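Hi F.,

I've been meaning to write this up properly since the lab meeting, where we talked about keeping a consistent format for the predictions we share between groups. The idea is simple: the sequence comes first, exactly as it goes in, then the structure tokens exactly as they come out, then a line or two of notes. No screenshots and no reformatting. I'm using this chain as the first example so we have something concrete to point to.
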Amino acid sequence: MSVLLLIQLFGCTKEEIKKEEIPEENGPEISARMDGPYIFYENGGIKSYTVDAGGKLVSAAVSYGDELKVVVPYRDPETFEFVLKKELPETKSVFDDGMKIFAVSDIEGNYYALTKLLMGNGVVDKDLNWTYGKNHLVFNGDMVDRGIHVTQVLWLMYKLDHRAQEAGGHVHFILGNHDVMCMAGDSRYAQDKYLQMADRLNIEYKELYGEESEIGRWMRSKNAIEKINGYIFVHAGISSDILDLNLSLEEINELMRPYYGIRITDTVPENVYKLFKTSGVLWYRGYEKSREGAYPKATNELVNNTLSRFEAKEVIVGHCLVEKIEVRYSGKIVMMDVHYPDGKSSSLEFQALLIEN
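Output, unedited:
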């Protein structure tokens, strides 16, 4: 059996949190109002839209190579910059280099928890610059919805993706069900600020993450499943329905990518429908429980067959909430969807997954 090192990792100590406190009297109101930038390809050019602290919609023409600022009011750091990239190559499905892997899941727009974890564990510095060398940073799905800093979280991932590549490292954004829901226009879990932003731009909600938006273009270059140094990262899991398709990881990603942003019905090809439906890689909860009429609880045989099929050590998932990151099925399944603190007063702990040696 492979050795998996599970560590509870803290962004900072309680004492350090007290030292960095800053006034937040108007923080929630301003955070709920400010948004952006949203970058769209329009009329042969590129345009950025931002809502400032006063609620004013500001637009500007931008170009590839421009360094653009993101503002996160009453957070530390309150700003960071990213460079608009012209080339967004599709991500590989399999990596094998023996480097460290640092992973988080289900951040759901929680900029506070994400930056504390990354800064506190040497992935980035205090200005959110990549400091993780040739190692791997994995976001295991559901980075959007529910939170009020979804846009800022996505741009931070976008920035780190670029900077990691320059350093020979890797950022992996494994798409989850909520990420794909946003691309398809399902706004059931979105904060009102995002719906209001779409209204102000006179577009549908899904166009915030559409093919003509930079964030949507970037998200469509990402995968639903990857194997990194022998560990499979997938947001929900791998059911018997998926194994029966007899697809490689590359084939799964190639089949799913053209359907990001589309409401999936049984009119799509059958193998695509199975990948997206309840027992698919975005929604399956079989490592936690059964679902009547859809699938039974995963058996040891299913888990063993999964690892054998993909020549993997373990499967690492989010999606199903657990109190602490935990290992199941005799060390073959890792569950890592935990509640994260969303501010200094929260009693929740910072947790992430580290795999090394």
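Notes:
The chain is about 25% helix and 20% strand.
The first helix runs from residue 14 to 19.

If this format works for you, I'll send the rest the same way.

G.
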